[in-house]
# Entry
Amino acid sequence: MSVDFEKLAQEEYKYGFVTDVEQEIVPKGLNEDTIRLISSKKNEPEWLLEWRLGAYERWKKMNEPRWAFLRYPKIDFNDISYYAAPKSNPRPKSLDEIDPEIKETYDKLGIPLEEQKMLAGVAVDAVFDSVSVFTTFKEKLAEEGVIFCSISEAVEEHPGLVRKYLGSVVPRGDNFYAALNSAVFTDGSFVYVPKGVRCPMELSTYFRINAENTGQFERTLIIAEEGSYVSYLEGCTAPQRDDSQLHAAVVELIAHDDATIKYSTIQNWYPGDKQGKGGIYNFVTKRGRCVGRASRISWTQVETGSAITWKYPSCVLEGDNSVGEFYSVALTNRLQQADTGTKMVHVGKNTSSTIISKGISAGEGQNIYRGLVEIGKNAEKARNYTQCDSMLIGDRCGAHTFPYIEVKNSTAHMEHEASTSKIGEDQMFYCRQRGLSAEDAVSLIVNGFCKEVFKELPFEFAVEAEKLLSVSLEGSVG
Amino acid sequence: MLEVRNLHVQVDDKEILKGLNITVAPGEVHSIMGPNGSGKSTLAQVLAGKETYEVTEGEITFQGKDLIDLEPEERACEGIFLAFQYPVEIPGVANTYLLREALNAKREYWNEKPLKHVEFAKLAREKMRELGIDEDLLKRSVNTGFSGGEKKRNEVFQMQILEPRLSVLDETDSGLDIDALKIVANGVNSMRGTERSFIVITHYQRLLNYIVPDFVHVMVDGKIVKSGGKELAQELEEKGYAGF
Ligand SMILES: Nc1ncnc2c1ncn2[C@@H]1O[C@H](COP(=O)(O)OP(=O)(O)OP(=O)(O)O)[C@@H](O)[C@H]1O
Ligand SMILES: [Mg+2]
# Structure
């Protein structure tokens, strides 16, 4: 009569519904024409089209990375459609102009677009397949000089900034998926916080994949000028479908002197069913440059969705005294696989980085932490603290850690801690003896395990994250 | 209240309890004493439903219900509480949080409304004061970094909040200083009543000066070999277990 960890009562994915809107979907296939089509749909300037085509040239010569600890069928890049957008008003000026179906979708997802219904103090950019359908609180933010809009809009309205920074953190030929994204990216968010401004609200982007057989390739660019502060959060969901879908995003962050960017992700893409059918393939390149002195970039991620996750939010610590942080919870249940971690590249003096990674594997999930801490030869007195903890629930899942360290300066101070534990039978029994069901006990213990990461999330979302984790764990014990 | 008949329990093919009998009526306090390894904690854990122990023979009934088929949480909700010999640490989970979840799980089981935050906080503060527990302990992670004595006191605190019908205290007195011992004993005594029963496992007669038992049982090699009144504890203190 032991806890039956294997009895997987497949829990419905709450966000698996499909929105019935008329959509324009370009024919499947990847070639120059596709790229020209995307670019023309967005009225892009010539330089951007050239930039895309250059990325495509590079991509064609690249190979899909195979070093990750992930197993998935070969992706046919010609069997994907690269652009899908609702046919209704492409850039509504007010809420009334939004297709009611789309509005309802966001209501159902718990992200009402009416400003008065929003969580107090959170502005939202809503991205539906390939396009941003609405951005809230734009005017209010503009009063402070903060620009928050879709990247397509930024290309039109703030071409100078986009041209200056696009690809300055993740060059278009950086890696296979980044090159692909650079060639075909469709939308995403753009944030600019001027000098000395503390952004008065949380900014967030809500990514929704709706169309079938399409990929989502969004691109986000955040620039924090000297002495500014911004906290940004992204959330993601997708319908439940039998075919896997590709999501390959690029996020670039730039922090100038004394600026702080906090970037949080709650990733809950459709994970596939219990046989591993369907689910999102999530191949993401996220990187921030701390170009300024004493600048700070902090990544916090809660990854519970997707069939495949390949993601290493990184910091390049160029400015002296700059700080990079990575706080991660990755949960894999059923047949999910995650290969995730971070890169901390110390270039400047007195730079410091902190990595706290919590991997939870349940069902037949595979969870890999892969991290690199690189201390450059001029990075005097750099410091890193790394802590990687893995928790296993049941005995068909797996956890692996690959921490790489390269130190080229002998004044560096490195600390590394790692642990792997099975969810304690004794802890379970203790909680159940007090009256908690097995499921509640698991969720309580796992949430405790993740506490250090959750406390880094903006308060409004920490509660969400805890709930999400509990839901994602449902069915992991019988 | 509790009736254990001819209980045989094994773990990894090794028999630990070998035909144990004990009957506890409502309102009674029973003390179990016995040498190390005789099976006292095993009995406690089996009553609470620990799954690593296999019941191969015998019966356990609790308030007329067959206990063996119930999950640990069902037993807890039915009113069985175990104060662990070694309370478990749960990092990152606030002590109050676990306890409120536990109390509300139990209330839900009995179709009662969950207790609101403020109501719970009030209740917890009251009990804490009675037990001389530092409020700080409530906010800290469950048992994490608690001293031995703090862990034991925390168990009694949980017992006070959950108000079980049958409490099994497994060496709750071990490692306590004399003041703490009195506090723990008061914690038990204040709950004694016609509807509540206790099984107190201890190595020391000393505790029984404070918690005066109705019965004392001697357990050796998986069986109760002798039962008597509170004077039996005194006898054991003097002569040890050599005679059994
Ligand atoms: N999970 C287990 N696996 C193997 N052996 C066990 C297990 N649990 C208990 N035992 C064995 O069963 C016997 C009884 O153990 P138990 O903990 O019940 O004794 P106890 O009377 O509580 O002793 P103490 O006074 O030292 O606390 C011991 O020999 C112990 O090693
Ligand atoms: Mg014992």
Chain B has a mean pLDDT of 93. Residues B 40-41, 85, 170-171 surround magnesium ion (ligand 2) (CB under 6 Å). The interface with chain A takes residues 48-52, 71-73, 75-77, 81-82, 84, 87-93, 97-99, 101-103, 105-106, 109, 141-142, 158, 162 of chain B (CB under 8 Å). Chain B is about 40% helix and 30% strand.
